[in-house]
Specification:
Low-confidence stretches: 1-7
Number of domains: 3
Largest sheet: 5 strands, antiparallel
Number of strands: 12
Oligomer: single chain
Helix content: 40-55%
Distance between the termini: 122 Å
CATH class of the largest domain: Alpha Beta
């Protein structure tokens, strides 16, 4: 009975099976018992164990099975004066630190961030996203954050100031990036890669590595969203107009070439019909071009280049009439139509 009682006073197996998935620091519950010399310390993958002597970190153990003896506790042995060997039970605090990656940690701006925009001045925006982190230096993290709390969850760590730090550094990084509001809105998915190295030093200061930082959404004020939408629609309209103008010009040059080829053939085979069709399509494109130009500026008179084009077309019509491809009536009708535009 006495031996059984004494055995219960000594800790022989030290380990941590984490079933919570959100604990970052856990203290082994010693209940004022002493650790038996030769006790087995089991450290699993994604864990680090720290022996704490009178509030100071002594020995640090990575994954594996460790027998606690003076031989493999060099720092603690030196602190306790066990240089010449010691076999009696001893008392230390054992803390486990999880080094696994904690994922899908949420962040967001509670208050709008004023961001300077070259065109819109200061614009308040909100942003939301996720990030992932892991403990890189367990001893440094314990010294900087753990204190005397026997259990520290990831949420407690973040609420201790680091979630607000993420938002603060994110806000400053946006301001320093020089990006316009339109660029921020269009490149929200790419901002995380840009901002991660800016945020990283603040986490490394306490032994943490920021492994991922994602910006999932950037919310702009309603009036700014409307303005950006109008700008985008105007840009698309201008691009469409420019593409249409280019297509008209290209088709016009092609049909002029076709008409010229047909005139050289004269009345051979279907040359006259081909010339007539090509000419009519060319005139149609010319009219479309003029309508397009007039719609953009209806009060503007034909330019010198446009007048030259009309006169050149009249000359081509005359040559087609002289070659017998156009009748006198067809020529006069087309001439009247073209002269009305001068």
């Amino acid at each position: 009975m006495v031996l059984s009682f004494l055995r219960r006073q000594f800790i022989e197996i030290i380990e941590w099976v984490d079933e919570t998935r959100d604990t970052i620091i856990w203290k082994f519950p010693d209940e004022d018992r002493e650790i038996k010399m030769g006790a087995q310390l089991t450290v699993r993958e994604s864990q680090v164990a720290l022996l704490i002597n009178e509030g100071k970190i002594a020995d640090v153990y990575g994954p594996g099975r460790h027998e606690l003896t003076t031989r493999n506790m060099p720092i603690l042995s030196d602190l306790r004066g066990w240089k010449y060997g010691f076999n009696s039970p001893f008392k230390v605090d054992v803390y486990f630190v999880s080094t696994r990656e904690f994922q899908n940690l949420r962040w967001g701006t509670q208050q709008p961030i004023p961001v300077q925009d070259p065109e819109l001045s200061l614009v308040p925006l909100r942003a939301f996203g996720t990030f992932a982190m892991k403990v890189k230096e367990a001893a440094l993290f314990f010294r900087e954050f753990a204190g005397t709390d026997p259990v520290v969850t990831i949420e407690e760590f973040l609420e201790g100031g680091f979630r607000s730090l993420v938002v603060t550094r994110f806000s400053q990084a946006l301001k320093d990036s020089g990006r316009s509001i339109a660029e921020i809105n269009a490149q929200a998915n790419q901002l995380g890669d840009v901002l991660l190295p800016i945020l990283q030093p603040e986490f490394e200061r306490v032994g943490i590595t920021l492994t991922r930082f994602l910006v999932e959404s950037v919310t702009l004020p309603e009036e700014i969203q409307k303005q950006l939408l109008e700008q985008d629609l105007e840009l698309r309209r201008l691009r469409k107009k420019a593409n249409l103008s280019q297509e008209v010009e290209d088709m016009g040059r092609f049909l002029q070439f076709q008409a010229g080829q047909a005139m050289e053939k004269g009345g051979e085979g279907g040359g006259a019909g081909l010339a007539r069709s090509a000419l009519e399509m060319s005139l149609g494109l010319q009219m479309a071009r003029e309508v397009q130009q007039q719609s953009s500026n209806p009060s503007k008179a034909p330019s010198a280049e446009e007048r030259a084009q009309i006169l050149s077309t009249l000359k081509e019509l005359a040559e087609l009439k002289n070659a017998g491809i156009l009748t006198e009536e067809e020529f006069e009708a087309k001439k009247k139509e073209l002269l009305s535009r001068l």
